[in-house]
Structure formats: C-alpha cells, structure tokens
Amino acid sequence: MSDPHLKTPIAGLHHVTAISGPAQENLDYYTKILKTRLIKKTVNFDAPDMYHLYYGAQDARPGSVMTFFNREARGQGQAGTGAAQAFAYAVAPDDLPKWHEALGGTRSTRFGAQVLSVTDPHGQAFELIADTEAGPWGVFHSVTLWVADPVPTAAILTEVFGYALHGEERSTGGRRLRYTLPGDASGRVVDLWVADTPVKARPGPGTIHHVAFRARDAAHQAALRENLLARGENVTEVKDRQYFKAIYFREPGGVLFEIATDGPGFDVDEPMAALGTGLKLPPQYEHDRAQIEARLPVLRAE
Ligand code: ZN
Fold first, then answer.
1. What is the CA(16)–ligand 1 centre distance, in A?
2. Which one, out of 35, 52, 77, 110, has a CA that is 20 to 30 A from the CA of 276?
3. Residue 2: which pLDDT band, with cuts at 50, 70 and 90?
4. pLDDT for residue 7
5. Residue 192 lies in a domain
6. pLDDT digits 0-9 by tens, 184-236
7. 77 C-alpha to center of ligand 1: Å?
8. 241 CA distance to ligand 1 centroid (A)?
9. How many angstroms separate the alpha carbon of residue 52 from the centre of ligand 1?
10. Rounded-to-integer distance, Cα 135 and Cα 130, Å
C-alpha cells in the first residue's frame, strides 16, 4: 500500500544492536571466525561499565554495522515476540559452502535463496543469505522481526519507511512476510516472523536489543520523525550517539526501532585505517576514563 504523503523512504538498515556475553569471546568470534572488522571499541553510553563493540565491513559503511552491549556476567535471554530474532549478512552464493564449513549451522531455502542459519557462542541467531548482488563481506541482507500480529508493524514499514510487501512464505513453525525497499540499499529487506506458538521475548545475552534504520541526514531523520509523531508514535528527541544522531521508538509490534543518520561517521574520533584500536569514550565520560578503564576487562585483539 502506498501513502501519498510518503516522500522520504528509509535508506535501508543502519545497524543492529544485540546483547552478548563476555566481550573477549564476542570479539574473538566476530573478528576471527566471522571475519568482520572491529570498527569501534567504546562503552554503553547509558551504562559505561560495559563495553559496546561495533563490527562491520572493512569500510564501516552504514548497513554493515553489528554492535553488542557486552555483558560479562553469564546468562541467557530468550528470542520471541516483540523483538528482532536474527540479523542476516548477504553472501555471494559460491561462498556459502565455505562459510557452512567454517561456522557450522543448518542450510535451508527462503524465498528461493539458500540460507545458512547459525548461532553465535552466546546464543544469538544470525544468517548468511546467498545473494547474487552481495557486496563486500559484512553487509547486511536483512533482519527478522518476531511479531504476534504483522499488520501494525507492516503499516510502519510500508506507510512511513517506504517498504513494499514482497511475499509470504510458510515454513516450519510459522510464516514469514518479506518487505523490501526499492533500489539496492544495504539491508533493504525486513522479514516479519509470525510463529504458530508465540514465545515472549526476554532480554539478555543472545537477543537483539534494537534495529536501527538509516536516514541520509538530519533533515531526512526530522521528516521521518514528524511522520511518526503524526501517527501518534512515541518518538524520542534526537540523541547524539557520537558517530550518528539517533531517534528511537517502540513500533506497535514491540520491537525497539532506531533511525540513525549516516553522519558524522565512525571516523569522527579515529582515522579510518585505525578504527577500533583505541577505547573511545564520549565527551561526558572522558574525565572518568581511568576509572572506566579499570572496571573493564582487558581485551586482546589477537
Ligand atoms: Zn543503536
């Protein structure tokens, strides 16, 4: 369904943020096994006693950025309705067997494409999806949102963000509705998963905290914010996240959505060639750097 007022479709996925277990194990898996690049080592801006590690494609482009709030305590969340269930990378079809061998997991077919479903060491589900148009390694294909009723979530996707229904597919345990953006934006696919037997999501390691969509700039973000407010969505003020500006709202299906700008970018506080090498703190925490560093575990890059 198209909305005549829709002038500013979203530009794809920007980043996905999940909760992991201990930072060192998370770092080892995402850099050594999955071979994404550590592009930022910082702390949770709302809880600076915890690392916030960012991984992405080599060029750290929006639409490739997977981030984790790294909890040192053991524990496990539960994926379920009202949260994103999995993120997925696009992979050249010929590379899928190599990844299957490296990562394990199970193969299936989804909307005609080969899918490798994997679980990381802390229980986070993710996928590699064969895509003939896959770009460099580490760029998102899609994200799957687990909802009880797809209709209100689909309304946000189609009427505010500019997605269109691509199709619906039945598989074991539920049905999947696929929404796509026109063009070739990174992460231009959102799937809604409607399980036959709903399970309520419980936050914790192995679960996705929020999904960030991409606004080209502040004006684009402001227009999207106005559209959401006009529909009665409870959207935050613009927050400065150092590498981008962000607004947040909980979509009607319960998933926390963010809309993040491309700028200023991940090279605002360290050069592109050195991304991820130093512990970066936002200005409000710099004066506490010594105490913050003392509370964080030492991470080995190699
Ligand atoms: Zn975010």
1. 7
2. 77
3. very low
4. 61
5. yes
6. 888 899 999 999 998 999 999 999 999 999 999 999 999 999 999 999 999 99
7. 19
8. 8
9. 11
10. 11
In a domain, 302, yes or no: no
Dihedral angle computed from the Cα positions of residues 25, 27, 28 and 29, in that order, rounded to the nearest 10 degrees: 90
Peptide bond into 264 cis (omega under 30): yes
Alpha carbon distance 78, 16 (integer Å): 17
Cα–ligand 1 centroid distance for 170 (angstroms): 31
Distance CA 51, CA 63 (A): 21
Q: Per-residue pLDDT tens for 263-300?
A: 999 999 999 999 999 999 999 999 999 999 999 999 99
Q: What is the pLDDT of residues 142-175, one digit of tens each?
A: 999 999 999 999 999 999 999 999 999 999 999 9
Span 72-92, mean pLDDT? 95
Q: From the CA of 212, how far away is ligand 1's center (Å)?
A: 6
pLDDT score for 1: 40
The total domain count for the chain is 1
- If pLDDT is split at 50, 70 and 90, which confidence band does 247 have? very high
pLDDT at residue 128 greater than cutoff 60: yes
Asked, for residue 96, whether it belongs to a domain, the answer is yes
CATH number of 66's domain:
3.10.180.10
The rounded Å distance from CA 279 to ligand 1 centre is: 18
Rounded to an integer, what distance in angstroms lies between the CA atom of residue 43 and that of residue 34? 22
How many Å lie between the centroid of ligand 1 and the Cα of residue 220?
Answer: 17
Distance from the CA of 41 to the center of ligand 1, in angstroms? 14
Q: Residue 247 domain-assigned?
A: yes
Q: How far away, in angstroms, is 172 Cα from ligand 1 center?
A: 31
Local structure of 270: helix, strand or coil: coil
Strands 256-264 and 207-215: parallel
Q: Separation of 143 CA from ligand 1 center, angstroms?
A: 14
